[in-house]
Amino acid sequence: QLLQPHMLYVSTKQRGNGVLKHIRNVPFAFSKMVPDYIMSPTSCALFLSIKYHQLYSNYIHRRLGELKSDFKVRILLVLVDVEDNAKILLQLNAISVRNSMTMILAWTEKEAARYLESYKALNGKDASIIQRKEANNYVDQVAEFITATKPANKTDSANLLCHFSNVQAIIAASKDELSLCPGLGHVKVQKLHDAFHHPFSTHA
Amino acid sequence: MAGTKNKPKKPKKQKKALIPDGLLPAYLASAFGDLYEEDGLMVMARGLGWLNLLAAFCRFYGDVQDGYLSLLKEENPNEKRTKPPLVMVLGMKDTECAALTSLLETWGTPHELQPTILTNENGGSDDRRELYSRGGVFCITSRILIVDLLTKTVSPDEIEGMMVTHADQVTNDSTSAFIIRIFTSLKQREKCFIKAITGRPEGLAMGFNKVDKTLKALQVRNLFLYPRFHEHVKQELEVGQPDLEELHQPLSPLMSEIQLALVSAVQACLRELKRSTPFVEWQNSELSIENCVTTSFDRMITKQLEKDWHRLKPETKQLSQDLRTLRTLFQSLIQYDCIKFYSFINSIKTMSASSRRPSMWLLTPAAEVMFKKAKERMYTIKKGKPTAKVPNPVSRLRRVLEENPKWMLLKNVLLEIKEEESKHSQGKRFAPTILVMCKDAQTTQILKTYLYEGKDQLMLDRWHRWLITNNDRSKNFVNGKIPEETRLLAEEEGSVGLKLKHSNQDRRANAKKRQLNTVPDFLRKRRRIALEKGRNGAFSSTEDREREAVLEEALEEVEHQYESKPAAASKRDLVAEGNQLEEEMYQTSFIEEPRIVIKSLSSVEADEGASLLQDVMPDYVILYDSDVAFIRSLEVYSAMNPIEDRKLKIYFLIFSASAEDKVFRKNLEREQKAFVDLIEHKQKMPPPVLNTEATQECREAILHGSIGGTYAGGSLPLAFDTRRAKGINKNDIRRDIAVDVREFRAALPSILHQGGMRLAPVTLTVGDFVLSSVHCIERKSISDLFGSLASGRLYTQAEAMSKYYKVPALLIEFDPSKSFCLQNSNDMGLDIKMDSICSKLVILTLHFPKLRILWSKSPHETLELFKTLKQNHDEVDVDKAVEIGRSDSIEALLTTEGDGEEEEEDQINEAARDMLLRLPGVNVNNARKIMRECESLAELSRMSRQELRNIAGPLAGQKLFSFFRQNLKST
C-alpha cells in the first residue's frame, strides 16, 4: 500500500472516535490497517481510552500483539477520561515499556487530536526547538548565565546588569558591592561570589 | 545514658558551669533542662534565642571535661569513653552556622570544641569518615548525611544523637525525616536522642494536624512551647522592660502620590490577571490600598496560581512577575532616596523594553504618573511664560532632591538623645552608645553617608553620579537638536560637578587642618570585636580622620540649625557596617562622646540579635526599620543587662501611611495565635505513636532472607551486596536502585527507601535513577520538564541515555497537590504551535524513538512503578552505572588528570561549572579546555581577546570576549 506523504492515515476501526472531529490541521484518510493511526512510514500510534481499558483490559494486549515491529516510532496515545486512574496508569506504564511503546497522555479529545496532528505535521522536523539555543539578546544571555546559580533569578540578573552595566564588572565586584544591588540578599551574594571566584575544581 | 531520667536536676547544674553566667537567660536554662531530659520538639517565639539554646547543647555535648561525657562518668564509673559523642545538627543555614560558631567563641569555647561544619565543599567521604571517627558535634547538611548513612561512611551506631533545627519544615517525606527513620530503625530508641528546635511556631500551626505529623516525622513524643507569654519568659523579661517610643512619620506628598499610582498599577495587573485565568478560583484577592502595602500579595497570588502554573500563558506569568516587582517598588519607595528610586523604576522600564514581553503596567496612566512624580522628587523644569518680548523664554531646572523623610526623623532623634545626654552627663563616666538598626546593607550605607556628610552632600553626590550615567547616553545628539530637558540636565551636570569639586576641596582642606591639631593617636581606642573575623578591611587612618572631620562639620551645621549648644567639642563616631561578617569593625571611641553604631537587620537574620547587642551594649536603640525577632532580642538584652538608674530607650521610626507597623503587629498576632493553637492542641493531643518496630524496609529485608543478614545490621554498601548476591537469588524481589546524589534533595529517594528499595547514592553522569542494567530514568517534575525542554537540557540527557541504555525513560512526575494535566486545552488554540509543550514532546519522541515516557501522579506512584519495572530484570550494577558516560562528560576531564580515583562530585565547583556551560560559545568540548587552562570565572572574565580565542576557539573566544565586555547601554 502506497502512502501519500501529506496524509494522516486512520484505521477504519477508529471511525466514530471523538478525537477525529478535532483533527483540522492535517488531512486524514481512512484505510484498513493494523495500527490505529499511521503518521509516516516509520511512525504509528495506537489509541486507548482508559474508560474502555477498564471494561476490556485484554483489548490492548491483543492490539499490541498484532502490531508488527516495522515502525520505528510507536506511540500509545492514552486518553485519560477516568478520575481514579492511578492503578491503570501504573499498568499502562509497564505495558508500554515492555512492548517498546512510547506512551503519551492526553486529557481531552482535543488534546489527543493535537498530538496526532503534531506527529503528522512535525515529522521530519529538526530538534532545534528543544535543543540548547544560544540567546542572541545580550540581556537574555546574561540572564541565562546568572540564573545558573540557583537562588538567583531573572530579576536579579537584570538588576545586576543595570547596576554594573557589564558582566566583567559583575564578576569583578566584591561581595559588598554585590549586596548593594537591590534584591540581592546575603545568600545570593555569597553564592554568586563563590561561583565567580572559587576555582572550577579544587582538585586540579 | 540510662540513668538520666532519674537525675533530672543534674544537667541544669552541669550546664550552669559550662556557660558563663549571665549569658543565658533563666528561661533558656529551663528550656535546656526540658529538652535535655526528654527528647522533643522545642518551639520558641522569635527572638528568644533558639540559637543560644542550640549553642548550649553544642557546648554541652562537645565538652569532654565538663559536659555530657563527664556526666555519664559520674553516673556510671565504668564509662570508659574518652572522645566526645558524635552528634549531628541538621537543617542549619550557612549564616546560622557562622553565628553559632561566633556565639560559642564569645562564650570562650576553645577551638577544638567548636562544632565541625560540613558542607559540600569539605572533601570526600573518606575525609568525613575520619572526621566522624573523632566524634564531636557536626553541623551537616541533610543531603550529605543521608548519603553517608546509606554508603555506610558513618553508621547509626556511632551517632549518639541528632539535633534538628528549623524542625517546623520537617515533613514525612523530607530528607531529615528520612535520616531520622534510618537512624531510629537501626538503633534502639533508648540509646539515642533526637532533639528538635524551631523558632517559627506559625510553621506548625497551619494545615491539618501539622504538629502531630511533624512530631511523628521527627520521632519524638514531647512538645515544648516557649511563647513570649510563657510564665518564665514573662517574669524574666518584664523586669527591665525598655522604654519604647513610637515616632510616626508621614510620607511626603509626592511619595504618597507615587504610592497611590503603584496601587492602581497593582490593581490593573490584578484585573488583567483575573481576566486571563478564568479557570482559577480567586480567593481574597480584593486588594485595598492597605492590603497592597501590608500583605505580601504577590506571594498570595502566586500561591493560587501555582496549582495551574504549567497551564498559564507566558503573559500571565509575566503579570505575576510584575506584581512581585511592584511590591518591591512599594518597599524601595520608602526605603531609599528619590534618585535611587527613580533609577530603579527606570531600569525596570529599560529591561522591560528589551524583553520579549513588556510589562503591561508600564503602559498604564498610573505608571506615567509614577514616573512623573518620581522625577519631580529629583528636579523640576520651570518654563518661563512666553511673552511678547521673549517669545522663547529660557527654562530653568530646579533641583529638588527630596530626601527620605525618615532621615530627618533619625537625625532629630539623634539630636534629642544628645540633648538628653548633655542634661544628665554630669558625673557619668561613659558616653552612651546608640544603635541604629535598619533593613539592609544598602540602607546602612546611605544612613552612614547621610550622617557623615549631611543631606546636601549625599544627595549632590548621588545626583552627580546619576547625571553622569544618565547624560552620556544622549551625548551623540546633533548639537542643535538637543531637547531642552537634556540640555538642562547636561548643564546641571557641569554645575553640580563644579560644586562638588569645591566642596571636596574644602573638605580636604578642612581635613588637613584637623590633622594638624587632631587628637593624638593614643587616645584613639581601636578595638576589634571578638566575633568579627578580620580579613582585609583596612581603613587607612587618614581617611578615617577625614571622615571624622567631615562628620563634625555636618553635625555642627545641624546644631546651628537647632540652636543647641555651641559647636565646640562635638564629635561622634560612626561605625557602620555592611552585612558581611568578614568586614572588620573598628570602634573608635572617645570618652564622653556618644557612639553611634549602624547595623542592618539582614546581618542579624540568623538569630544573632542577642550577640550583636552584647557586643555593642547600646543605651539607645533606634529602629529605623523594625523586626519582631530583633525587638525580642532587645527585651532579652534589656532584662539581662539592667542599666543602673535608667532604662534602655528604644525609638521606633515608622512611616504612618505606609502601614509598616501594621505588618509588624500582624506578625506578632500571627505568632501569638500560633502559640495559642499549639497550646490548645498540646492539651488534647494523643501521644504520638512512634514506629519503634523496624520499618517496612527492614522487615522486607528480613523476610526475604539472604542479603537481609548484612542488610538489617546497617544500610548497605550496595555495590558489594549485589555482586555477592548476583546469581544466587534469582527469584528474589529486586530492590536495588542507583540514585544520583543530587536527587536526594527531592522526596522520592526517601519514599523509595520507605517502600523497601535499597538505594545506592552515587554520582551518575547519565540519568537520575538506574533501576537495572537496561533501565535508566531521568526524573522531571512538571516545572523541570518545561524548563529543561526550553533550555535544551532534556535533549542532551535523552541523547546520553539513549546512547548507553536499552530502555531510557523520561519520568514525568506530577505534584499530587497540583492538577494532573500538562496543558489547558482551552489555551491550545486552533493551530499547531511550535512552542507548545505538545509539539516539544512530539519532537522529543520522534527524535528518540527508544525513549519511553513514564507518567506518575506522585512520588508514591513512582515507587510502585519502579518496583514493577524492576521485576524480572537483573539488579543494577552500581559501579557500571557510575562509569557510564563519564568519559564523555566534563567530570571526566577533572578526574582523569588526577590519580584516576573516583572523585566526589562535591570537589568540583558545580555552580561555576554550570555557569561556564551557559556562557555563549561554550560547549562541553571547549569547557574542558577552559577549565584546564583557567582557574575561575573571574580569571576567565579578565582574559584578553586573544587569550580567550586560544583557549575556547576563535569563534567562541570572540563571543566570550564580547559577552564579558559588552555594555548594556551600548546595546
TrEMBL record, chain B:
Return the GO cellular component terms, semicolon-separated. Answer: nucleotide-excision repair factor 1 complex
What family is this? Belongs to the XPF family.
List residues of the ERCC4 domain: 736-816
Q: Which UniProt keywords apply?
A: DNA damage, DNA repair, DNA-binding, Endonuclease, Hydrolase, Nuclease, Nucleus
Q: Which GO terms describe its molecular function?
A: damaged DNA binding; single-stranded DNA binding; single-stranded DNA endodeoxyribonuclease activity
Q: What is the lineage of its organism?
A: Eukaryota, Sar, Stramenopiles, Ochrophyta, Bacillariophyta
List the protein's name.
Answer: ERCC4 domain-containing protein
SUPFAM superfamilies in the record, alphabetically? Restriction endonuclease-like (SSF52980), RuvA domain 2-like (SSF47781)
- Keyword Nuclease on entry: yes
Supply the Pfam families for this chain.
Answer: ERCC4 (PF02732)
Q: Where in the cell is it found?
A: Nucleus
Query: InterPro entries, alphabetically?
Result: ERCC4_domain, Restrct_endonuc-II-like, RuvA_2-like, XPF_nuclease
Q: Does the keyword Mitochondrion apply?
A: no
In the record, biological process GO terms are:
double-strand break repair via homologous recombination; nucleotide-excision repair involved in interstrand cross-link repair; resolution of meiotic recombination intermediates
